[in-house]
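REQUEST ID: PR-0412
SUBMITTED BY: lab tech R.K.
PRIORITY: routine
TASK: structure prediction, single protein chain
INPUT:
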Amino acid sequence: MSCDIHDIGGAPIIIGAGVAGLMTALHLAPEPVVLLSNAPLGTGACSALAQGGLAASLGGEDGPEFHLCDTLGAGDGLCDEATVRRVVRAAPKAIKALEDFGLAFDRYSDGQLRLGLEAAHSHRRIVHADGDATGRELVRALIAAVRCTASITVLENMEARRLVVEDGAIIAVLAISRTGTVVLPTRRAVLATGGIGGLYCDTTNPPGSCGHGLALAAWAGAEFADLEFVQFHPTALEGPRRPMPLVSEAVRGEGAVLIDETGERFLAETPGGELAPRDVVARAVWQQITGGHRVFLDARQCLGPRFGSRFPAIARLCREADVDPSVDPIPVRPAAHYHMGGVAVDAAGRCSVEGLWACGEVACTGLHGANRLASNSLTEAVVTASWVAESVAGTSHAKRRRVCSTFVPTRPDPSCIRPIVSTALGIIRDGDSLCEAVANLLPIAAGNEAASDPALVALMIAMAALRRQESRGSHFRTDFPWRDAEACAARLTLRGAMQGALALGWQARTRST
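STATUS: complete
OUTPUT:
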């Protein structure tokens, strides 16, 4: 296998080309930067699949304080209030910045932004582009801007496999391309690799979103936070298609209701109804399904024949599944959607490893707490990208070359661990299932096979879930069904990555036997 050392002049390397990576690269201009994409730009990233929009307090009666309160409420006591306050205050300016990059948001005929309503929001504050295709349009606009920015070098079809660390600091990125192994010497790397939905059988994420950035960070010795909190979208379109198509929360924001096969609306007595926090709605839907019922989203009364014009992408997906949402209830079920936890970062996006930053879903900023407020994810990626870029630009970039090992791990493949993860780390959890998952994941994580890195990530999540002996937000345990007022955000620190994870895993396995 070849080992091609690329002299990139000490430029920072951004790993991942979704919204977080693209925005970070653009904010770094005119400083030279290298953007790694494991596929052609615009493919493979979760961002392009996002139907929801960006949350920002732009309406006349709305304001950052309302957005703050809604975010803190959804986060169920685990948000970092300072981070939330900073993000919601920056969100309106971020919307303007996106327009400057060429994104056209939906507006009424009088020019006013068309603001949508989603679950747990007290005001209409969701901006969309092309109806329910916000992610696609956002990625399209940012890619066009990146292509026109001379300071950004895009390396497509190149996947980072390891971060090379010396004396606790990043010195290179080891990547694989179609021609072999590539070593990119750098003292500054940014993880923008997305989430973990690909670890599950039922997910709205691309199958490649299997926690790759978390594995990179773990091997580098980074610190993690809130890994146990995985959000399940309540209304993925039921069927064999993977990733599962979303039926956006905005449909419920327009008045659609959840019913069973008899037509009964089972959330009628739930505070907030269909617009309760996502964890509440997802558990309610899951309980219906495990009780032998089917679940449907009924938009016939609120939208009817207007469904196709209001949500054209969803209408197309429904038609492909032989469902006409204007006259038929839409069959739905929950699916793994978003990871609130991730690499622990400070206010500038810096990780515990010198020279490493994280941005977007792979990072844990403290914004989301135990349960993400709808449409705060794209907002977070856009807002924090500018902070990360500012920090990266202000950090020394002394060049350093060295010979690196040509060894690279096998391309990650989570296929064999998906049943384990889906069973133990789903919407409803319990200690016995988590301990069994640890026992099953340990030998895979300790090996040198395609599933080893995904298994390591799943192992870390399972350990965090075992540690949190309460139910809070998206983390619900039947053996600890209450909320512990004294509980705080669990932080799992790995020094030496695999060794730390395996040590914790063996301890849990010993206790369970």
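NOTES: Residues 307 and 326 are 6 Å apart (CA to CA).
REVIEWED BY: pending
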